[in-house]
Amino acid sequence: MSDKTKRKQRTAYPKHSSNKTGTDSPARNRWASLGRATGRGLLASLISLLLLCTAGAAVAFSSADPDALVTPVSLGVMFLSCLIGGLVTFRSQRQAPLLCGLLCGLCLVLSLGFLGLFLPDSLRGGWPTALRWGLRGGMLGFSLFGAVIASYAPKKKRHKKR
User: How many other CB atoms are there within 10 angstroms of residue 111's CB atom?
Assistant: First the structure.
């Protein structure tokens, strides 16, 4: 036998029989992976929301009239954090950008809506219902946009080990 054949025989790994039944196992793994990616995106979005709120508050309070800047800065921070969440979700999953962005956006809308339940009525604001639903749609849109932007980013190159 040649050295090449001997080397292949030494490094060949035995095939293990798996206990997977049916074809639903790859689909289950795909959904679990999508759930983990959505969780990462949600976590990144909430962390960026916290950091950007701090920076936005510093910018607003350093101006002469902070009341005029509170709404635009808070909307910009909210939409930017949704964009970051969509980016992170797709970069974690690397498949189906629209589904990644949609799931991340829905999770953000639900989590911020849940957090809004604990705010006093004076902090909720008196915005009309149509405007609030429009802002939620904007959050979904920015999350989708972030995932689509991330899908056009070049893939990371992996170097082969020698």
Answer: 14
Q: Is 94 left (phi over 0), alpha (psi -120 to 50) or beta?
A: left
pTM for this predicted structure: 0.73
Distance of CA 36 to the CA centre of its chain: 10
Low-confidence ranges of the chain (pLDDT < 50): 17, 22
Does any domain span residue 6? no
> Torsion over CA of 113, 51, 67 and 125, rounded to 10 degrees?
10
Contact 48/81 with Cβ under 8 angstroms?
yes
Domain of residue 76 covers: 41-118+127-151
Question: Interhelix angle for 24-61 vs 66-93, to 10°?
Answer: 160
Question: Running DSSP on this structure, what letter comes out for residue 160?
Answer: P
Residue 43 and residue 92 in contact, taking contact as beta carbons nearer than 8 Å: no
Number of domains present in the structure of the chain: 1
CA distances from 125 to 122, 128, 129, 156 (A): 6, 9, 11, 44
Whether 15 is in a domain gets the answer no
User: Across the chain, how many H-helices and E-strands are there?
Assistant: 6, 0
Asked whether residue 2 is assigned to any structural domain, the reply reads no
Distance CA 102, CA 142 (A): 10
